[in-house]
Design goal:
The chain is α/β, with parallel strands linked by helices. It folds into two domains: 151 residues, Vaccinia Virus protein VP39 (Rossmann fold); 42 residues, no CATH class. The chain is built from ten helices and seven strands. The protein starts with 8 loop residues before the first helix and ends with a helix.
Length: 213
Protein backbone atom coordinates (compact mmCIF):
# COMPACT_ATOMS: atom_id res chain seq x y z
CA UNK A 1 0.00 0.00 0.00
CA UNK A 2 1.15 3.53 -0.73
CA UNK A 3 2.25 5.97 1.95
CA UNK A 4 0.61 9.28 2.80
CA UNK A 5 1.53 12.00 0.27
CA UNK A 6 3.46 14.83 2.00
CA UNK A 7 0.89 17.41 0.94
CA UNK A 8 -1.77 15.70 3.08
CA UNK A 9 0.25 15.73 6.30
CA UNK A 10 -1.35 18.97 7.60
CA UNK A 11 -4.70 17.18 7.67
CA UNK A 12 -3.26 14.29 9.66
CA UNK A 13 -1.66 16.74 12.11
CA UNK A 14 -5.08 18.25 12.90
CA UNK A 15 -6.66 14.89 13.76
CA UNK A 16 -7.13 14.19 17.46
CA UNK A 17 -8.84 11.61 19.66
CA UNK A 18 -12.08 13.63 19.93
CA UNK A 19 -12.71 13.14 16.21
CA UNK A 20 -14.57 10.30 14.52
CA UNK A 21 -13.80 11.18 10.90
CA UNK A 22 -14.96 10.28 7.43
CA UNK A 23 -12.72 10.91 4.44
CA UNK A 24 -15.08 11.90 1.63
CA UNK A 25 -13.83 10.80 -1.79
CA UNK A 26 -10.95 8.94 -0.21
CA UNK A 27 -9.38 7.90 -3.55
CA UNK A 28 -6.56 5.45 -2.66
CA UNK A 29 -7.36 5.63 1.06
CA UNK A 30 -3.88 6.84 2.07
CA UNK A 31 -5.18 9.51 4.42
CA UNK A 32 -7.84 7.27 5.96
CA UNK A 33 -5.24 4.56 6.68
CA UNK A 34 -2.88 7.08 8.28
CA UNK A 35 -5.68 8.47 10.44
CA UNK A 36 -6.71 4.98 11.57
CA UNK A 37 -3.11 4.24 12.55
CA UNK A 38 -2.98 7.47 14.55
CA UNK A 39 -6.35 7.23 16.30
CA UNK A 40 -6.74 3.48 16.75
CA UNK A 41 -10.51 3.88 16.67
CA UNK A 42 -13.22 4.07 14.02
CA UNK A 43 -12.43 5.87 10.80
CA UNK A 44 -14.70 5.94 7.74
CA UNK A 45 -13.97 6.52 4.06
CA UNK A 46 -16.19 6.89 1.00
CA UNK A 47 -16.15 6.74 -2.77
CA UNK A 48 -19.03 7.24 -5.19
CA UNK A 49 -18.59 5.17 -8.34
CA UNK A 50 -18.61 1.36 -8.28
CA UNK A 51 -15.08 1.10 -9.65
CA UNK A 52 -13.65 3.70 -7.26
CA UNK A 53 -15.38 2.11 -4.28
CA UNK A 54 -14.10 -1.35 -5.14
CA UNK A 55 -10.58 0.04 -5.49
CA UNK A 56 -10.90 1.81 -2.13
CA UNK A 57 -12.06 -1.38 -0.42
CA UNK A 58 -9.02 -3.20 -1.77
CA UNK A 59 -6.69 -0.44 -0.63
CA UNK A 60 -8.17 -0.38 2.87
CA UNK A 61 -8.17 -4.12 3.47
CA UNK A 62 -6.77 -4.88 6.91
CA UNK A 63 -6.52 -1.20 7.89
CA UNK A 64 -9.54 -1.07 10.18
CA UNK A 65 -11.09 1.73 8.11
CA UNK A 66 -14.79 1.28 7.36
CA UNK A 67 -15.49 2.03 3.70
CA UNK A 68 -18.95 2.73 2.32
CA UNK A 69 -20.29 3.92 -1.02
CA UNK A 70 -22.00 7.31 -0.94
CA UNK A 71 -22.42 10.66 -2.68
CA UNK A 72 -20.78 13.35 -0.57
CA UNK A 73 -22.23 13.45 2.95
CA UNK A 74 -25.11 11.15 2.06
CA UNK A 75 -25.56 8.18 4.43
CA UNK A 76 -23.30 9.80 7.03
CA UNK A 77 -22.89 7.43 10.02
CA UNK A 78 -24.53 8.81 13.16
CA UNK A 79 -21.30 8.73 15.19
CA UNK A 80 -19.20 10.70 12.70
CA UNK A 81 -18.38 14.23 13.88
CA UNK A 82 -15.63 15.14 11.41
CA UNK A 83 -15.68 15.37 7.61
CA UNK A 84 -12.52 15.54 5.54
CA UNK A 85 -13.07 16.79 1.99
CA UNK A 86 -10.02 17.41 -0.15
CA UNK A 87 -8.81 17.08 -3.72
CA UNK A 88 -11.83 18.98 -5.08
CA UNK A 89 -12.59 22.54 -6.11
CA UNK A 90 -13.89 24.90 -3.47
CA UNK A 91 -17.26 25.24 -5.20
CA UNK A 92 -17.66 21.46 -5.30
CA UNK A 93 -16.92 21.26 -1.57
CA UNK A 94 -19.43 24.05 -0.99
CA UNK A 95 -22.05 22.11 -2.96
CA UNK A 96 -21.43 18.97 -0.89
CA UNK A 97 -21.95 20.90 2.35
CA UNK A 98 -24.98 22.78 1.03
CA UNK A 99 -26.66 19.69 -0.42
CA UNK A 100 -26.59 17.82 2.90
CA UNK A 101 -27.54 20.40 5.57
CA UNK A 102 -28.68 17.82 8.13
CA UNK A 103 -25.42 15.89 7.85
CA UNK A 104 -23.39 19.10 7.97
CA UNK A 105 -25.22 20.15 11.13
CA UNK A 106 -24.22 16.84 12.73
CA UNK A 107 -20.53 17.64 12.29
CA UNK A 108 -18.31 19.42 14.80
CA UNK A 109 -15.20 19.68 12.61
CA UNK A 110 -14.46 20.20 8.92
CA UNK A 111 -11.04 19.58 7.39
CA UNK A 112 -11.03 20.93 3.86
CA UNK A 113 -8.48 20.98 1.05
CA UNK A 114 -9.95 23.09 -1.77
CA UNK A 115 -7.97 23.19 -5.00
CA UNK A 116 -9.65 26.34 -6.32
CA UNK A 117 -12.13 29.08 -5.33
CA UNK A 118 -10.81 29.09 -1.77
CA UNK A 119 -12.14 32.60 -1.12
CA UNK A 120 -15.66 31.56 -2.11
CA UNK A 121 -15.45 28.54 0.20
CA UNK A 122 -14.21 30.68 3.10
CA UNK A 123 -17.11 33.06 2.54
CA UNK A 124 -19.64 30.23 2.49
CA UNK A 125 -18.47 28.41 5.61
CA UNK A 126 -18.12 31.55 7.71
CA UNK A 127 -21.64 32.58 6.70
CA UNK A 128 -23.10 29.19 7.66
CA UNK A 129 -21.95 28.75 11.25
CA UNK A 130 -18.27 27.86 10.96
CA UNK A 131 -15.08 29.51 12.18
CA UNK A 132 -11.59 28.97 10.76
CA UNK A 133 -9.61 27.45 13.63
CA UNK A 134 -6.44 26.94 11.62
CA UNK A 135 -5.04 26.96 8.09
CA UNK A 136 -2.00 25.58 6.38
CA UNK A 137 -0.43 25.67 2.95
CA UNK A 138 1.91 23.16 1.35
CA UNK A 139 4.28 23.96 -1.49
CA UNK A 140 4.96 20.95 -3.71
CA UNK A 141 7.45 22.01 -6.38
CA UNK A 142 5.70 25.33 -6.92
CA UNK A 143 2.15 24.01 -6.71
CA UNK A 144 0.35 25.26 -3.64
CA UNK A 145 -2.22 23.36 -1.60
CA UNK A 146 -4.29 25.27 1.00
CA UNK A 147 -6.00 23.50 3.90
CA UNK A 148 -8.69 24.72 6.31
CA UNK A 149 -9.61 23.42 9.77
CA UNK A 150 -13.11 24.59 10.75
CA UNK A 151 -15.04 24.41 14.01
CA UNK A 152 -18.54 25.59 14.88
CA UNK A 153 -18.65 29.31 15.59
CA UNK A 154 -18.90 32.79 14.11
CA UNK A 155 -16.31 34.75 12.20
CA UNK A 156 -16.49 37.78 9.94
CA UNK A 157 -13.69 38.11 7.41
CA UNK A 158 -12.41 41.07 5.45
CA UNK A 159 -11.98 40.73 1.65
CA UNK A 160 -8.22 40.24 2.16
CA UNK A 161 -8.83 37.53 4.77
CA UNK A 162 -11.30 35.76 2.47
CA UNK A 163 -8.78 35.57 -0.34
CA UNK A 164 -5.51 35.08 1.53
CA UNK A 165 -6.80 33.30 4.65
CA UNK A 166 -7.00 34.83 8.15
CA UNK A 167 -4.76 32.26 9.86
CA UNK A 168 -2.33 32.16 6.93
CA UNK A 169 -1.98 35.94 7.15
CA UNK A 170 -1.22 35.59 10.86
CA UNK A 171 1.27 32.74 10.49
CA UNK A 172 3.21 33.95 7.42
CA UNK A 173 4.68 30.51 6.70
CA UNK A 174 7.35 30.12 3.99
CA UNK A 175 4.89 28.28 1.70
CA UNK A 176 2.31 31.05 2.10
CA UNK A 177 4.86 33.77 1.39
CA UNK A 178 5.98 31.87 -1.73
CA UNK A 179 2.35 31.59 -2.84
CA UNK A 180 1.84 35.34 -2.37
CA UNK A 181 4.80 36.06 -4.64
CA UNK A 182 3.45 33.56 -7.17
CA UNK A 183 0.04 35.26 -7.11
CA UNK A 184 1.62 38.67 -7.53
CA UNK A 185 3.57 37.49 -10.57
CA UNK A 186 0.50 35.77 -12.03
CA UNK A 187 -1.68 38.86 -11.71
CA UNK A 188 1.06 41.18 -13.00
CA UNK A 189 1.48 38.97 -16.07
CA UNK A 190 -2.27 38.67 -16.60
CA UNK A 191 -2.69 42.43 -16.42
CA UNK A 192 -0.44 42.85 -19.46
CA UNK A 193 -2.80 40.86 -21.70
CA UNK A 194 -6.32 41.37 -20.33
CA UNK A 195 -8.24 43.77 -18.12
CA UNK A 196 -8.30 42.51 -14.56
CA UNK A 197 -11.60 42.14 -12.78
CA UNK A 198 -12.25 44.57 -9.96
CA UNK A 199 -11.60 41.79 -7.46
CA UNK A 200 -8.26 40.90 -9.04
CA UNK A 201 -7.27 44.58 -9.17
CA UNK A 202 -7.84 44.82 -5.42
CA UNK A 203 -5.87 41.63 -4.83
CA UNK A 204 -2.97 42.89 -6.90
CA UNK A 205 -2.96 46.22 -5.07
CA UNK A 206 -2.95 44.43 -1.72
CA UNK A 207 -0.03 42.27 -2.85
CA UNK A 208 1.89 45.33 -4.06
CA UNK A 209 1.51 46.83 -0.60
CA UNK A 210 2.39 43.73 1.40
CA UNK A 211 4.67 41.41 -0.59
CA UNK A 212 8.42 41.96 -0.54
CA UNK A 213 9.69 42.12 -4.10
Amino acid sequence: MGSLPPRLKPLLAWIDAAMIPVDIGSNHGYLARAIAAKLLHKVYATELSDASFQHLQQQLEGSGVIAYQADGLDQLPAEVNTAIITGMGGLTIQTILHTHPKATQQLSYLLLGPQSDVDSLRAYVTQTGWRIQDENMVDVRGKFYPFLFLVKGKETLTPAQLYFGPRLLEQQTPAFLAWQKSEFNRLETLMRTVSLTEKDQKRLQWLKNHVKH
